[in-house]
Amino acid sequence: MQASRKLLIGVKKPAAIPSAVKQSLNRYIPHNVGIQGSYRTGNIGDRALGEILKSNLETDGYRTYLFDKNVQQSNAPNRILGGGGVLHDWYGTEHLWKRLNYATSGERGFVIGVGAPGFHSERARSLISETLPQMEVITVRDERAKNNIQRVCDVDVTVTACPVFLYDDPDLETTEQTGVNFRPYFDEKEDMSDAILKEYFGYEDLENATQKYIATAQRICDKLDNPLFIPFHADDEAFAQKHLDIPVFKHKVSVSRTLKKVSQMKRMVTTRYHSLIFAAICGKPVLPLAYEPKVEAVADRLDVPWYKPHRDIPFQFTSVSNVDTIRSAAQQNIKLLSDRLQ
Description:
By secondary structure, the protein is α/β, with parallel strands linked by helices. It is about 45% helix and about 10% strand. It has 13 helices and ten strands. It has helices spanning about 1-10, 20-25, 45-60, 95-105, 120-130, 145-150, 195-200, 205-225, 235-245, 255-265, 275-280, 295-300, 325-340; strands at about 35, 65, 80-85, 110-115, 135-140, 160, 180, 225-230, 265-270, 285-290. The strands form two sheets. The chain has a six-stranded parallel β-sheet, sandwiched between helices. A four-stranded parallel β-sheet has the order 8-7-9-10, covered by helices on one side. Helix 4 (about 95-105) runs parallel beside helix 5. The radius of gyration is 20 Å and the shape is globular.
């Protein structure tokens, strides 16, 4: 009854409708395209993926709605599994089934700009081999993702680049600050088993790797004259407050706000995948810490050295290269998708 009264108020004043009710209603308002991903978890990189895909599709005239990773119901005839490292079974297979089920439950399904870290279980490999051949288009952000898919599924896969490369540099005045981003290390993640961490990421002694990582983060920050911690997730901010003694840019789920702050930095220490991409978009010299292979892949494409975060790291920053080429590859995600939607 209370929800009904709020909806009646919302007829005259739409802003008064609760956000949860708006999301429920929007699932059923006619739209051409639905995009499902981890867009409401507080991760700036994932949010950036959803927003750039939605923006480009709406520019092409498609009414588009972003759905979070748990949504299954939608009236969208065209359904996209959009961006992020979504094809894996790190946390079991239920989340993988939900993502694939969403994409295959419409008239046409697409997998666009994703990562595929790999498949641990037979159930995950079976889901991939059963569902991906049903997709109209599959594009992935790097060669490793393509290889991991094609090891278990005979399907066409096009290597493009992360769609986040389609953002423009805000081109703000540069300060003398060095931007810093560290994510919490894997030993702090309770939802991933040690066996999975060792298999996917190659860390044999997790406790020792974690302590070395924290020490490395502290050593790097101690060498910087004017550091500013830029979180890409609330967990990053918590990590900085616990382990580092530097100023912290308060985390808010705003892509434009975060990208503008990166644009103001003189250079960037990057750990999260999208912190490196934001730095590259803004043309900043970088010191990339490759906590997993996806960071290695994008650093290689940018022609910059990368370093394992739990090992010795030289204190040197390198200018990025090939950004225009990677941006063109990222644009292929939109072109291939638009060609099939017509």
